[in-house]
Amino acid sequence: MGIFNHFFDMIAANREKKLEKMRDQGICPECRGKGYHAPIGNAYVYMPSFDYRCYSCNGTGSFNDWENQTHSPT
Asked: How many domains does the chain contain in total?
C-alpha cells in the first residue's frame, strides 16, 4: 500500500505545482489560457463552434474566472 500512496501523493504534488504555475501566469488550467479546446476531429465529425469554448473559464482563459467557476458554491 505504501507504493500506491507514494504514487498518488506524487500525482497530487504535480497537480498542485501545475495549478501554482497557472496561477502565477494568470491562465486557465483547463484550456491553458486559450479560452477554447481544440478538438481532435476529422472530416466525418461535426462539432458546432459553441462546443469549442472552455466551460471552466467561460471562454476567457483567465485563472480568476476558472477559480470562481470551479470553486463557487452551488
From this structure: 1
Contact call for residues 14 and 33 (beta carbons, < 8 A): no
Residue 48 has pLDDT above 90, yes or no: no
SS3 sequence, the chain?
Answer: CHHHHHHHHHHHHHHHHHHHHHHHHCECCCCCCCCECCCCCCCCCCCCHHHHECCCCCCCCEHHHHHHHHHCCC
Q: Which helix (H) or strand (E) holds 71?
A: helix 63-71
Cα distance between residue 15 and residue 21, in whole Å: 10
> Among residues of the chain, what percentage have pLDDT more than 70?
77
User: Is residue 18 pLDDT above 70, yes or no?
Assistant: yes
